[in-house]
Every structure is written in structure tokens, then in C-alpha cells.
Amino acid sequence: MAPEKVIPTEHELEQLDLDDQRTQELIRRAQESDVADRQLSVRQALKKYKKAVFWALFLSTSLIMEGYDLVIITSFYGQTQFRERFGVWDDRTQQKQITPAWQSGLSNSALVGQLFGLVANAFCQDRFGARYTMMFFMAWMAVMIAFPCFAPSLPVLAWGEAMCGVSWGVFQTLSTTYASEVVPTVLRPYVTAYVCMCWGAGILLSAGVVRAVTGVEGDMGWRLPFLLQWAWPGPLFIGAYFAPESPWNAVRRGKLEVAKRSLTRLREDNTEREAEVEASLAYIQHTTALEKAETHDATFLDCFRGTNLWRTEINCVVWAA
């Protein structure tokens, strides 16, 4: 359950009392946890942390909704039922069409909402934890789906898309962060890659739904694909309620007992589990202490200063890809 090996700098070490007996014991247990984590093969890690893998994959499934909507909204521009409901008469084609301006607006409204969701998640997950953040925005999603489902006009539809986009922005980073924090290092490439699979699955699912409703007459031809999105928030909300909290997130918020319970739930039951949980908890505490020592006076503005600016640019380009 450990991240990449942490090599403290002199500045970080100055913030820690290395002569303190508790600190020395914490470092010793952290080192034991790091060594044990790095000795695991993929098969051993899957067997030992199958519960962690399950929860990581389950919460990442929320990204199917985002991939689903990406195709749904753009597919409606050529759908007869949608054009009859929201289009304007075009003399050249002698039929109703969705104007280019509204096509652009509808296609990008959800993306605008996602930007706000990404920022909201940075605050909410750090303050309230992954579980409660996921549950809140699942409930938010369940309410906001009503806007595109029953939109009387294009402005209301665009507003609904933007509000749904807030949830999708949260799910983008929350699911990846949660997945990387609950599984050991050797499994992280696999569980985080599953996020991309969920995007693809959503796109594939929406293509099938759009094809299936081509023969549906009236407003249900475009409303039904939106209505089907209500199938997701309920099960995912319940799953998030029963999911263990990210131990890393819990330690950062000072919830050591929550972190300990999560670590216990995320690994297989054996005679060594209690000792392994204590070692993993020590590793997380030690790493978190080093991070706090290094960033105790840092702000978001520091992401755009010095060498951090280069890191920020790399992350932006990777996400844009």
C-alpha cells in the first residue's frame, strides 16, 4: 500500500524530530512496509489486495457516465426527433436544424462544468474525504440529470449539461486518486488504466443507445438516452457509502482510526494482517509528515512558480491528450 519511495531532503528532515523515539519507530515500520510492498508480484498483489482492487474498479466505473454523454449530445444534432423539438427552420435544407452556435454551445457546456468540478474536487476530497465527496456529487448528478431530460429549450439543456459536467469533473480525478491510493504500487498501472476503459465503455454504450432509439417517435427519442443515465447514480451512491475511505486521505485529515479500518478492509484476512496494517499505517504517517514538512506554507499559486510550473505544464498536456 505504499507509493513511490520517498527520499527526504535536508529541509524536510529539519522539520522532523529524528531523536524522538516515536518518530524512529514510525520510520522503522515505514521502511518495513516499503520493503514488503516492493517484493510483491502482480499475482501476489491481486490475491492479497483483491478487495482494494474491487473498490478501486467500482468507483472508477463512474467515468462511464462521462464517456456516455460525450457521444449522446453530439449524436442528437442529426436526430430527427431532436431537430423537430429544438431546431430552427432552414430554407436551404427545407427542414429544421440545430444552428452551429448551439451545436458548439451544447458540445462544450459539459466541458465548462467539468472545469469547475475539477477545482471543486481538489477542495472537497481534501476536506471531506473520497467517500463523502463521491456520494454528494452522485446525489448532485441524480438531481441535475432532470434538466436535460425535461429541458423545454436549448438554454435549459445547456445549463443541465454544464451542471452534470460538474459531477463528471469530480469523478475524473477522484476515481483515479482513490484507485492509486488504495492499491499497492505494482497494481496502480492496471487500476488507473481501467479509468480509460470506462470512458471507452461509455462511448460504446451511448452509440448503441442512440442506434436503438432511432425508431422511437416524439420527444422520447431524445429523452430516453438521458433518462437512462439515472441507472448509474443510485448503485454508485450505495457503493460509495459502503466503500472504505482512502487511508492516505484519512491520515491527511487526521483520521487515524478511519485509516486503520480502511487498511484492514482493503487486504485479505490472515494472521499477519494486523501487523501489516500497522506497518502500512506507519508508512502513510511518515510520508504524510514529510509532505507536510515540505509544503507547510505552500499554496495553489506555487504550482505556477519555479520548477513547479514545469510540473504543472506537464500535467496539463497529459490531461489534454
From TrEMBL:
Alphabetic keyword roster: Membrane, Transmembrane, Transmembrane helix
Subcellular location: Membrane
Record's bilayer topology term: Multi-pass membrane protein
Species name: Fusarium albosuccineum
Similarity annotation: Belongs to the major facilitator superfamily. Sugar transporter (TC 2.A.1.1) family.
All copies of domain Major facilitator superfamily (MFS) profile, residue ranges: 55-321
UniProt-listed InterPro entries: MFS_dom, MFS_sugar_transport-like, MFS_Sugar_Transporters, MFS_trans_sf, Sugar_transporter_CS
Protein known as: MFS alpha-glucoside transporter
Major site of localization recorded for this protein: membrane
A single MF term (Gene Ontology): carbohydrate:proton symporter activity
TM stretches of this protein: 53-77, 106-124, 136-159, 191-214
Pfam families linked: Sugar_tr
Keyword Metal-binding: no
Membrane found in the keyword field: yes
PROSITE patterns: MFS (PS50850), SUGAR_TRANSPORT_2 (PS00217)
